[in-house]
Specification:
Elements (H helix, E strand, L loop, with lengths): L1 H25 L10 H13 L3 E5 L4 H13 L4 E6 L14 E4 L17 E4 L5 H26 L4 E5 L11 H14 L5 E5 L3 E3 L7 H16 L5 E3 H13 L6 E4 L1 H8 L8
Helix pairs in contact: 3-7, 4-5, 7-8
The chain binds NADP nicotinamide-adenine-dinucleotide phosphate (NAP).
The site of NADP nicotinamide-adenine-dinucleotide phosphate has 23 residues, from α3, α4 and β7.
Length: 275
């Protein structure tokens, strides 16, 4: 009898899990992808011809540094600026033309020129409540992000890309999701010509900084992530490919909301399947 109850509970759990996964898959945002890798190559080449410039906020973080690496190797921008609170030393030749703007995020109005003249912006800024406290988290993930977006818009940025989070919702009772949802909406009100919101699930990377709760989440999710790779997590390498691939895609939508599954699809765009 206890075995039957246990089996029933396990089946119920699986059903619940499947329902959650289906919910996430159905709400994953849609994206039109080119069919062949050749299409992506052509799009990248066409984009290069436009001689666009970009900036990255948060280029010292896990997402930002991968994004910078990929942007430099893909060479889709003719000028790349990183805006951050500290100067970085790059030894690799590939970084030699990167422009660095060191700013005080508490006095962003004094750094208007750092945000001028970029066609495209990528914002990968963020902290955690554990690291910065509640007020510090809001300051970075809301105030710094919004102010940077305002300055970028005033400085001529046409396409703003925001790394937000899965589940972002301005009505949420969870601080993290509420702040993410609020900043998404307030940046939208700025009216960029094109605004892309990325809502990744748990980021998979070898994070240098110790974050015990994220570590536990990753470990617990490992089997589920294996069975349903696009449901609850995303490798940072896939996320940054999605950002770069999406930038070169022509899109009539003024606002794009890319959930985790769409990020996986975009990140794998152009990859040829091994036979
Ligand atoms: N971790 C996840 O699983 C997950 C999942 C979904 C969404 N996200 C979101 O994705 C975004 C990027 O995440 P990530 O893990 O790549 O970020 P990360 O590695 O923590 O990097 C954060 C970046 O923000 C900068 N930053 C933090 N506090 C700052 C402050 N007080 N002043 C100025 N700059 C500051 C950091 O600069 P320094 O290097 O100078 O500190 C760094 O460049 C965040 O918004 C995060 O909430 C994360």
């Amino acid at each position: 009898m206890p075995g039957t109850v246990l089996g029933f509970s396990a089946a119920l759990c699986v059903l619940l899990l499947a329902a959650v996964i289906l919910h996430y898959q159905e709400n994953s945002g849609s994206v039109q992808l080119p069919r062949m890798s050749q299409d992506l190559h052509t799009l990248q080449e066409d984009y290069k011809m436009l001689n666009k410039s970009c900036f990255i906020l948060g280029a010292t973080g896990e997402t930002g540094k991968e994004l910078l690496k990929l942007i430099l190797s893909s060479q889709i921008f003719n000028k790349v600026t990183i805006i951050g609170r500290r100067k970085l030393d790059f030894e690799d030749e590939a970084y030699k033309h990167v422009i660095q703007e060191v700013v005080d995020f508490e006095k962003l109005d004094d750094y208007v020129s750092a945000f001028e003249g970029h066609d495209v912006g990528f914002c990968c800024l963020g902290t955690t409540k554990a690291k910065a406290g509640e007020a510090g988290f809001i300051r970075v993930d809301h105030d710094y992000v919004l102010k940077s977006a305002q300055l970028a818009k005033a400085g001529g940025c046409a396409h703003f890309n925001l790394e937000s989070s899965n589940g972002a919702n301005k009505e949420s009772s969870f601080l993290y999701l509420k702040v993410k949802g609020q900043v998404e909406a307030e940046v939208e009100e700025l009216g960029f010509d094109r605004y892309t919101i990325f809502r990744p699930a748990v980021l998979l990377c070898d994070r240098k900084e110790s974050r015990p709760s994220e570590w536990v989440a990753r470990k617990m999710m490992a089997p589920i992530a294996y069975m349903f790779p696009s449901a609850f997590s995303v490798p940072i390498t896939t996320l940054v490919k999605a950002m770069v691939n999406n930038a070169v895609l022509q899109n009539d939508k003024k606002v794009e909301l890319l959930e985790n599954k769409a990020i996986h699809m975009l990140g794998k765009m152009g990859e040829t399947k091994k036979s």
